[in-house]
Every structure is written in C-alpha cells, then in structure tokens.
Structure prediction request, 352 residues.
Amino acid sequence: MAPVEAHAAQQQHHPIKLYLLVWGLLFVLSAFSYMVDYLGLEGYLRWSLILIFMMLKAGLIVAVFMHMAWERLALIYTILLPPLLVLVFVALMVSESNYVLLTRLLFFGAAP
Amino acid sequence: MSAPLKPSSLETLPRPSGLAGFAADWASDQRAFKNVSWGKAMMWIFLLSDTFVFGCFLIAYMSARMSTAVPWPNPSEVFALEIGGVHVPLILIAIMTFVLISSSGTMAMAVNYGYRRDRRKTAALMLITALFGATFVGMQAFEWSKLIAEGVRPWGNPWGAAQFGSTFFMITGFHGTHVTIGVIFLLIIARKVWRGDFDTERRGFFTSRKGHYEIVEITGLYWHFVDLVWVFIFAFFYLW
Prediction:
C-alpha cells in the first residue's frame, strides 16, 4: 500500500452511525432556521438565531463531514484562521456602507 | 541540505501538543502537513481561496443592502410558493437546503465506504450524491426562471432595491456553477471507482499515475464545501 493511502486509511475510519447522527442534526438545525422565517421572528432574536444555527451547521459540516476534527493542528489553523480576517473586511465595509447611506440620504433625499 | 524525509517516517515524529506542536510543524526545512497528502492539502487550500471568493460576494451583498436607501425586497415573500392553494414562504429554498444536506450525508458515507474499499457501495453513494446535486441545480433553474418571469433583472425588480437582482444572480449563479462542477467531478470519480481503478491501480489517462481511494475523500471535501457555502447563503441572503 502506498504511504499516502496507508495514512488516510488509518486516519479517517469512523462509524457510519456518526455520519447519520450529524446528518440528522443538520436536518433538525435546517428545520429550525426555516422555522425562524416561518414563524416570522423579527429583530435581534431573528438575527441571533440565524447566526447560531448557521455556525452550528457550518461547524458540524467542517468538523465531521470534512474530518477537520481529526486533522493535525498545522492544517486546522492554516485553513480556519485566515477566513477570520474576512471579519475585518466586514467591519470595514459596514463602516463604508453606513457612510454611503448617510451621503445618499443627505444629498438625494429618501430615494437615491 | 539533507534529502526531505519520507512522510511515513515523519508521522512518528514526536511533537508537543497544542500551539507548540503547531509551531514545530510549521518550523523550517520540513513538510508542514505531516499526515496529509498533497492532494488533500491542495484541495483544502483551494477551498480556502474559494472561501474568500464567496466571502467577497457576501460582503458585496451586505454593502449593497446596507447602503441602499430603498427598502430591500422581503426574501420570505419573493421566494414563496403557492402549493395546493396554500401560501408557503421560502418553501423552495428550504427544500433545496434539505436536498443539499442529504447529498452531503450520502457523500460522507461514500468516503467511508471508499476507505473500506467497498467499490460498489462507494460508487452507488457517489451517484446518489450527484443525483441530489443535479436535483438542486434543477430547482435552482426553476427558481431563476420564476424570478425572471416575475421581472427580476440585474438592474431592477418590482419590489424594491435594484441591487437585489444583481446580488441574487451573482451569488446563487456562482454557487450553482460550483454545484454543477461538483456533479461532473462526482460522476468522473464515481466511474473510476465503479470500474475498480483504485483496486487494480489503473493509471489515470491524464496524469498516468495510480489513483487511490483518497480521491473520494478529496471529492467529498469539495462537495461538502459547496454545502457549506449554501449554509451561509441560506442564512445571509434568504433568511436575513
């Protein structure tokens, strides 16, 4: 057996049960996020619930389905830390968007 | 300079746990990813770059929505359907979400059977995954035609802010393209698995190298990523 396969083979052997469990959890979480819209929740409750369900789903997919939970830290940090920088970009654009909205309201009235 | 060590000898290298071990792995003159093959590492790095692409799209959408003085169309109503005379909000998107999650489940099981060298089950599960993916793309085509028929264009729509159409077509279009490429990728690998390429060590027509069942996991990484992106699109574009 080639070294590549030998490593992979001894690494990612998990019971099917685990995948079925995560599959079920993803279904339930998706149903919950849909219910947020169906029940018409509004404001901060809606946004926080959407974000919580989103992060739980994303975490389950990355950790179990993509096997990140069993990888070495060297790979985990390489892949998962850089996307956090996107949050800096988000913060920059939030500030920029508020400014654009302000100028639109100031110079064009209510409608641009 | 000494010759690079073989991965098999590196795996047993003792490392401190936690951050110190991470720093030791990343120190100079060695492979950073010890027990990860180049194929898997490169797929991960590609997915990281793709994360930034979709991140930019979602940030562009956020900026458009935050900076417009015109009300944003309510996605709950825009994507509602009449089913048997009943008005159900966002139902098509919910079904698409369940279809994609199911495809991720079958893909994870395909990877599992791949490592057990169960050729038939692996190929069958990959084909089911591809079928779910094709269903998803089909539903997306239906959604696009419905919205276009209702007058949504990249430069305007009947319900509110003009940027709704452009961000919608851009984000879901790019995601749908990823799903389509994933389906093609799945079909190619499923054919190889079915034919027994990874048992007979048949050489690839393009690379002339022997394949391994690990390619099923690499395909799976791409496929799960497509599902992952949908989780974010579903939350930010459809539910927000």
The mean pLDDT of chain B is 89. Chain B is about 70% helix and 0% strand.
